[in-house]
Amino acid sequence: MDLKSYEPFWLIKNGLPASYPSLKHNATCDVLVVGGGITGSLIAHQCIQDGYDTILIDKREIANGSSSATTSMLQYEIDTPLYKLIDMIGEKGAVASYEACYRAIDQLHDITHRIKSQAGFRKKDSLYFASYKKDVSWLQKELEARRKAGFDVQWLDANSILKEFDLHHTHGGILSAQGASVDAFMLVHELLQYNVKKGLTVYDKTQLQSVNYGKRTHEARLHTGAIIKCKRIIYCVGYESAHMIREKFVNLISTFAIVSEVVPDETRDYKDILIWNTSKPYAYIRTTDDRRFLIGGEDEQFRNPDKRDALINAKEKKLLRTFEKLFPNIPFDVDFAWAGTFGETKDGLPYIGTHKNFKDSYFVLGFGGNGITFSLTGMEMVSAWLKGKKHELTPYFAFGR
Q1: In CA terms, which of 64, 111, 199, 361 is 20 to 30 Å from 46?
Q2: CA distance 219 to 228
């Protein structure tokens, strides 16, 4: 499935940071990671850190799936508000899920520091504002749920938001003291290059076709005819999983984004804030590390790549109007416009765990608006499982929950 349209900003900005061969000979490893996006690169990073002989493969070029199209807003807030998630799965699981995403941002900060990343990771606050007056009551309910759970949040009224951010047409909102942004495409390449030096083997343009399961060792057959013998398989394949797993467990959504020309003066006051709203679908705004504005949203049901791509021009105009309404004093000259596809789950949570039809395997599928933070939680979970340990989030992220 084509997960992106035209050429996303990150591909043009970064070019080709690294190149990898395809696999044409047989190989062996402890752990085979399938998928070379941000999730696969993080899982491989953890596996190497834990001492496993690890191979990573991707059927495309590295990071050319959804990791090239993501807007990379890193938030602990899950698409399902905390107070609603508590009603759905209970307070323990809901708070633990939010706490895991909160920790994930600090974990990624530590990782980027350790590998000396140049991918523009930056800690930021997050403003979640009410688009309509009717949203204020439930948004304040969300504020209290987060406060009760111990998160650092405060309420800003519309005048305060206007004064502090020159953000118009709001009805107040929640300011959270935890968030970040990054260039995920560049970070994938940095993670892989860092770990290649520590023993990771990476192959792109290498497609997994089938797996023959043995008692202790399994044979992963590739389209090149080569075979990888491995003990465990970790699938970090995102939306491709919808074709691998028979039951319907995810809803595919098309999303759109535009990036402005470089505007150093105008972006200066917004470099430390992420902004999103209560509209359905919601809009989200950030700056890039090279001093541009980015706005995304206008989500709708995914049908096929051609129909999605045909909407880009119209969606670009709508996103531009949204930005101009919220920031009438800031110019936005569109430099890039693209579309991507992401997965939406019934509760806003990812699918991370085992599946009955895949022996000795784990899926790490960070669906929803928190894909990258969920991937970091997946690192923790997979690391524990490979060591025979349990993880508290297992039942909440499991298939069939």
Answers
A1: 64
A2: 6
